[in-house]
Amino acid sequence: MEETPYRKKYVFDGKGVLALLGGMLAGSTVVAILNVVVMYVFKVNLQYNDIFLILSNAGLFLGAIFAFDYFICRPSTGKKLNFNFSRTNMMTYFLVFPLMFGMMLIAEFITSQIPVTGPFFGEYYNYFNKLMEQMTNDPATLILLAVVMAPLFEEIVFRGIIMKGLVNKGMKPAVAIIISAVVFGLVHGNPWQFVGAVLLGCVLGLVYHKTKSLLLPILLHAFNNLCSSILIFYNKTESFADTFKVSEWLILGIGIVIFTTFYILFMKKYRVHYNDI
pTM of the full predicted structure? Predict the structure, then answer.
């Protein structure tokens, strides 16, 4: 039997951190320079336009991805950064989407326990709300940013680069999943999104680890953000409890039942395996 040649894999370490941060800075700088050019030529400040939000988001993440690819992945592996986006059978979708939804409900309950009043939390929460309100009032822009761009770019960075790079380095998958989820939560920059991002990041990491396909985490991330966007559009809140006028404890109970059931099914009944690219 012919032996499979050894394939070098990229790892995520201190150099990887610097590459991501440097790429983000470079991408943001390019967008800022573009805005200056547009102001000089067309007398229009893009910062007051939704297009600037889109360009800034794209510049930030594309810069990070390009920098990691060019300075870390290619020198260490001899190949460009590449990910497996394989589709899976329908049964897997029936398992992972309820799994994600159950964790969304659990995350909502835990988030609801974080204070929104007081000398510190009150001022911080008001600042955070005003910041969110200033982002955009256009549903199309919000959908593009939250449901399309964020899931694609963030899953490539946090699961595809950070988590996978840590596993390639020899770290236990469970530890790599938790670390990437915590970093994912920290970049949101506030305690109310941190909790949900960490918990949901753990589910996304688990699904990526089991399926070896980045497609499912992207779709699950988009599903979570779409649910939040719909709640905001129709009820000005991301809370299922507030929307349906039920107790947060009921939301927690439903979440635990759904998550536990589909976690067991996913872990014990899952039989799909892909070759990692």
Answer: 0.91
